[in-house]
Design goal:
3 strands, three-stranded antiparallel sheet, mainly alpha, single chain
Length: 119
């Protein structure tokens, strides 16, 4: 089974929002889409797909995963679908990571102090 399918299923069916966010962020194509949306307020699906080396249906699957994780919102106007970032899920992920960053920073600071005390 291709990796996209496994990760997509993990992201789509996980009951925990944070799990869906991290699963969505695990793919470089989805991270590239998010980076593009960070640089531009909105972009159409076609604009997002243009620089990617994958088919439009594959891009749509990636967008489904990102939308299910709450990382993007899509709006259809006529035949055009525009996408934009939605920051709340990423902020939740950053808060979760910050807790562990504090733990590791404190642990490494203690280790550095012990090493500096050694002759």
């Amino acid at each position: 089974m291709p990796r996209l399918t496994i990760v997509s299923r993990m992201a789509k069916y996980s009951p925990q929002p944070l799990d869906r966010v991290f699963a969505a962020l695990s793919d470089p194509t989805r991270r590239a889409i998010l980076a593009r949306l960070e640089a531009e307020e909105t972009a159409t699906v076609s604009e997002l797909a243009r620089p990617l080396p994958i088919s439009l249906p594959s891009v749509m699957k990636h967008l489904d995963v990102l939308e299910d994780a709450g990382l993007i919102a899509r709006r259809k106007t006529g035949r055009t679908v525009a996408c934009r970032l939605t920051p709340a899920p990423m902020e939740d992920a950053m808060a979760w990571l910050a807790r562990y960053q504090r733990f590791w920073t404190e642990s490494l600071d203690r280790l550095a102090a012990v090493v500096e005390e050694q002759p």
